[in-house]
Write a structure and sequence with these properties.
By secondary structure, the chain is mainly beta. Helix content is 12%, strand content 43%. The chain has a 5-stranded antiparallel β-sheet with strand order 1-9-6-11-4, with no helix packed on it. Strands 8-7-10-5-12 form a 5-stranded antiparallel β-sheet.
Length: 144
């Protein structure tokens, strides 16, 4: 079974003037970054995410503040606390993600392997469960 998520350290340079983390050619990010976006001003108690990608890989970073990310591959769930701007959570394809418990002033910064494509998203959890079953059926046939 593939790993559903992995915390990766981002290259950081510290100086008297402050700390810088770079997002160009990032060591540890296993894809070329084709899209970046960030969310902020998330209301207390709100959740984000609630979808999976068929092809797109992502690295989710708490650029400011903190939040939790729950990953679900259809068989297991794992929750990560993101609260360091020098670390990111690598999310594999076919993984349902939900972001919640945002602290005041938090900023969620995302690096994506692909440009936006509405057809790459699975928005309904029931559709995600069916997608997982279909993918597992393909995997079972490959190993028979």
């Amino acid at each position: 079974m593939k790993e559903i998520g992995k915390i990766i350290d981002l290259p950081t340079q510290k100086a008297n003037e402050g700390t810088r983390t770079s997002v160009g050619s990032i060591v540890g990010v296993p894809f070329d970054v084709k899209r970046t976006y960030w969310t902020y001003d998330i209301p207390a108690g709100a959740a984000r995410g609630g979808h999976a990608h068929k092809e797109c890989l992502e690295v989710i970073i708490a650029a400011s503040g903190s939040f939790t990310v729950t990953l679900d591959d259809g068989y297991q769930k794992k929750t990560y606390l993101l609260n360091r701007p020098d670390q990111g959570l690598l999310v594999n394809t076919g993984i349902w993600r939900t972001l919640q418990d945002f602290s005041a002033g938090s900023v969620c910064f995302v690096l994506a392997s692909d440009l936006y494509d509405a057809d790459d998203y699975i928005y309904e959890y029931e559709d995600f469960e069916q997608y997982v079953k279909e993918k597992q059926g393909v995997q079972d046939k490959k190993h028979s």
